[in-house]
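User: Working on a comparison across species. This one is Platelet-activating factor receptor from Sarcophilus harrisii. Can you predict its structure so I can line it up against the others?
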Amino acid sequence: MMDEKNSDRIDSEFRYTLIPIVYSIIFVLGILSNGYVLWVFVTLNPAKKLNEIKIFMVNLTVADLLFLFTLPLWIVYYFNQGDWILPNFLCNLAGCLFFINTYCSVAFLGVITYNRFQAVTDPIKAAQSTTRRRGIILSLIIWVVIVGCALYFLILDSTNVVLLKTGGKNVTRCFENYEKGSIPVLIIHIIIVFCFFIVFLVILVCNAIIIRTLLAQPLQPQSNANVKHKALWMVCTVMAVFFICFVPHHIIQLPWTVAELKIGFQGNSRVHQCINDIHQVTLCLMSINCVLDPIIYCFLTKKFRKHLSEKLQSMRGSRKCSRVTTDTAVEVVVPLNNYPINTMTKYSVTPVP
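Assistant: Here's the predicted structure for Platelet-activating factor receptor from Sarcophilus harrisii:
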């Protein structure tokens, strides 16, 4: 049945070009990077030997892959000018997994940050208390809570038919049906945004303390300085994921919800259009976390860095052997194993082995 009430909704037509392109790139890069990360974890780390933080990272990878598998559905949707031509249950599934990926990513990045905060502020206690069992329990709690909330999207009537302003064509929208003046919907969005910024504030404070603690440490040998440098980069990467991917969306989410529910901005269509345009861009930014998350693994696990370095070194060696050139500058290959080995003690502040 066609929804006449939503026929006059503000639309951002550039999204039908931008989002398929961005999602296609994210899909390819995300599947390759997260698939490789998961393969390395499974290959190099038997399940019984996974420690707490590695358990968090495996779960974060799984959450990213679940969302990446739905990207082809969204690509088809936006490529068809926002017309859901697939079965309706796939719209529900895509919306459900979008929610799961977003807030599982936020939650697991939060517990990873707190794990590193403990390792920096009280390394001895953290080394003694960090257990596989705690990682499993926290991961289960995160999955149960977020999947439980996301089940709402599976039972929701997610599609509606609207008449396009241009061309007079009927299209089926996916999760774009907004009941005018719905206070319950507004309250749900307020709760989600509020919870996000609580988690973000905790992560911000923890990372600020981590940076301050690391910078306050006295000068150390080169090997220890390299570890400190990697730890700082890890903190910066986590913060970059939040500031690039999650914060813009949650800043614009409430104004966008108010405008879509026609509770506010009714007298200024230009402001409403601007808010909607920004919202579409933030949806693209949200998906980038699936590509940025694997970068965090490089700074957190020695085995992952070693495996990646060996592969890159092998590739460089193969290319060197296959090329015949007189340019000696191109022929220079510095083996990674010439660098000093980290000899920090058990309780030093280091990324996870």
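For your comparison, note: The first helix runs from residue 15 to 44.

User: Helpful, thanks.
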